[in-house]
Amino acid sequence: TFYIYKYNLRSWNKFIHLPKNPKTRLGFTMHKLNFTAILLILSSLPISAQRTMKGQPFVGASALWGGSPGVSLHAGAYLERSLWEVSLHADGHQAPLSTGDRLECLDILVSGDWQWRIVSDRSRRFLLYGGAGIFAGYEMYDPRSSLPSTVDLTFGKGVILYGISADVSSEVFLSRRFALLFGSSVPLNFSSHAGRLRWRASFGIRINL
Predict the structure, then answer these.
(1) Do the beta carbons of residue 147 and residue 194 sit within 8 Å?
(2) Three-state DSSP class for 111?
(3) Distance between CA atoms of 12 and 80, rounded to whole angstroms?
(4) pTM for the complete prediction?
(5) Number of other residues whose CB lies within 10 A of the CB of residue 28
(6) What is the DSSP letter of 49?
(7) Which element (helix H / strand E) includes 158?
(8) Are strands 126-141 and 82-96 parallel, antiparallel or unpaired?
(9) Which of 52, 68, 107, 186 sits CB 3.0–4.6 Å from 92 for a disulfide?
């Protein structure tokens, strides 16, 4: 152990002290400057370049909760300081009826979202986004036919659904390609008979391709 320590110490001393020969000294100085410049360049590069760099595509899946469980599949890509994604949602919720019963609803939606990166740490292991999106799809009423036969849905069994949403989400990267997702959104529905303003929470994963 002492020999190895002594050898390493001598090697380090040779590196930090200039040789006595003037010609050798000039060449050695240039090598040190080049080495220092490379270290400075590497230290200044963003550690996250391969994690959320512009054009990096991703796919993911999330579990949804807005009064009833749901699921979402999504794909998109990172931009300079933001991201875009397209999602396919299937999620449920409930609405009260004047009879005292609860109306079950099932939404099948396609949405497009753009989210701006609000904050992140230097390595971009944690990122917080906020943004908005649009969606369209179909809303089914009482899909399991669980309402009493005496209840008459005057607005039919379903309706074309469309609207806008406000979204907040966060990523927690466990590796360069794999991240956990936490999110919340407030969809504003323009055509629903079961409530215009709702909320939705989500938890899922994202994989960078």
Answers:
(1) no
(2) strand
(3) 42
(4) 0.68
(5) 16
(6) G
(7) strand 158-173
(8) unpaired
(9) 68
